[in-house]
Amino acid sequence: MWDEIQFAIALSVSGLSIGLMYSLIALGFVLVYKATEAINFAQGEFVMLAGFVAAVALGYSGMPVLGAVLAAVVVMVVFSFGLERVVLRPLLGRPVVAVIMATIGLGAILRGLPPITVGGETRALTLPIGDTPIELGPASLPPIQVLGVVVTLAFLGLFTWFFLKSRMGVAMRAVADNQQVAMAMGINVERYFALAWAMAGIVSALGGVIWGSMLGVDTHLALVGLKVFPVVILGGLDSVIGAVVGGLIIGLVESLAAGYLDPYVGGGTKDFAPYVVMIIALMFKPYGIFGTHKIERV
Amino acid sequence: MLHRESGVFKTTYAADMALYPLPIARWTVAAIAVLLVLVLPLSLHEYYISVLNLVLIAVVGALGLNILVGYTGQISVGHAAFMSVGAYTAANLAVHLHLPFWVTLPAGGLMAALIGAIVGIPSLRIKGLYLAIATLAGQLIIEWIINHTPAISGGAQASIEVPRPTVWGHQLKTQGQLYYFLLFFAVLATVATLNIVRSRIGRAFVAIRDQDIAAEIIGINIFRYKLLSFAISSFYAGVCGVLYTYYFGIANYEAFQIGVSIDYLAMIIIGGLGSVLGTILGAIFVTMLPIVIRLTMEPLAGLFFSSGEMSSIIASTRLVLFGCLIIFFLVVEPEGLNRLWRNIRNYFRVWPFSY
């Protein structure tokens, strides 16, 4: 009996920490959607790109780890900035399917580039935090997951402060709420679009470093992006808190499914259970737990 | 098609809806028929006929997706999953019950239509991004179920070998014979699509695409037509999957993964949403792209890379070009190849007196 409880606690703790790491990536998606209503199907590829930049910086030039992380952040910010200018701005006001397909195409480009330019083999991205698991009661966590949790919580705090207290954050909320009114109040909407993408770039860069050092950096790292969708749908597409709550739920579901169902059905429930939960959630709460309801008029 | 239309006036609705808008269209269609039935199969090398065969299969699937995305305005990222439903249904029927293709083919299509209508149920409440993700979920869940149910997937490798189709007692073996087999279904699918989109159903689809609440107000049963659109689209996908299975002689879930769904979306976007001719052009374009890349890259890339790296380099180049093309068409020419073709045609229609 005690064993089973311990097993359940261990699964839950690991699930919740993985879930928070999903939230980190989902934050990038939510920030962009909230401010610009653009849908980024290439979020997983963003994370992969950041992982590659960091791994190559570490591997080739022998930069210190902090330098590599910084390089990833700079590259991602510049990249998402340019992306908004070149690809997404011309698509403003076009049907949703156009934006979705454009980011899917972008994802294809990003997945194709690394094998051509730097080689597609799996790279290690070692952070100087050791790998002896940290014991927490019955559960134990690898240090990279603890780091992931800490970074996510730090960003959550930062964004909460940013959106509630800072002048720019309030302006960004205004832009998200109604672009035309925001423009009329003298807010430079285009600048806040760029800022939203830059913030998403920073989040993706850190997500890439953390996930890359956990899974190893190759093109399969982009598959993490597939987990973003259940997270954001569950939490609500435009809610920062929703991304975190959704991440926790999906992480928990995934971990429990893998622990209890895998022995019976032969593996793979990890990739499958989050989507089942998501479909059920869509039936009952189509706009997620914290998402804004849209009222449509003819 | 290429024609001049001076002196042709449409005075009735029937004339406006006619399949052949102008008398000369009949001759164009006849010329294309001769090209497809006689000239191409008799003049081309076996390898090029096999490429044509792949194009014909893709045409069927892409037409189905265009009915859903281009005409009804619903997004589906799960087209390949519906293809796999058709493929495995037909494969199981053909292997375990020894049914001929003219039973398994519609059976595969109907099964896919049923599953497609079920996956389409969320479209009644959600749209846009949410629907895209719901169909993505459908894709992943169907893939997982097929892969983890030995009763469907036929055991360890999740693949079932299927005998080639038999027509009037002859088994189709060569690429040339399969070409006629596939051509028949591609033409059937094209004519069926042309007829669906100009009928009452097609008009209802277009109304839903333009504004579904408005469509409901003018008396279109949204519930029925949205699910019908998913079902019709998935029926095409299922048939496409069955043809694929018969063509390669094997049903394997790896041929129907999410990347294939994206290929088909690319076909209709590059070709032109809501256009039958565009769909065909897009299917040709996307199917030929990797083949052209391989033919041009192989001599070039041999200088720089070892043969082991080559396949991954070519696959990656294809991905990059693919992404660039999708973005290019979306940003520069949203109406796709169909629009380019119309521009060329309009230019030459009044040529050389263009004012």
Residue share in helix of chain A: over 70%
Percent of residues of chain B in beta strands? under 5%
The main pleated sheet of chain B reads as:
2 strands, antiparallel
N-C termini distance of chain A: 59 Å
- Principal-axis shape of chain A equals globular
Number of strands of chain A: 2
Please indicate the count of domains of chain B. 1
Radius of gyration of chain B: 21 Å
Helices and strands of chain B: which structural class?
A: mainly alpha
- Helix segment count of chain A? 12
Subunit organisation of the chains = heterodimer
Task: Describe the model.
The complex is a heterodimer of chains A (298) and B (355). Chain A has twelve helices and two strands. Chain A is globular, with a radius of gyration of 19 Å. Chain A has a domain at 15-115 and 144-221. Chain A has helices at 2-36, 43-61, 65-88, 96-117, 143-165, 167-177, 179-184, 189-215, 225-235, 240-260, 262-265, 269-284, and strands at residues 134-136, 139-141. Chain A is an all-alpha fold and 298 residues long. The mean pLDDT of chain A is 83. A two-stranded antiparallel ribbon of chain A has the order 1-2. Chain B is mainly alpha-helical. Chain B has a single domain (45-349), classed as Orthogonal Bundle (ABC transporter involved in vitamin B12 uptake, BtuC). Chain B has helices at 13-17, 23-43, 46-71, 79-96, 101-119, 129-148, 150-153, 175-197, 200-210, 212-217, 222-248, 258-271, 276-301, 307-332, 336-349; strands at residues 159-161, 166-167, 170-171, 250-252. A two-stranded antiparallel sheet of chain B has the order 1-4. A two-stranded antiparallel sheet of chain B has the order 2-3. The longest helix of chain B has 27 residues, at 222-248. The radius of gyration of chain B is 21 Å and the shape is globular. The model of chain B has no long low-confidence stretch (mean pLDDT 83). At the A-B interface, helix 4, helix 9 and helix 12 of A face helix 6, helix 10, helix 12 and helix 14 of B.
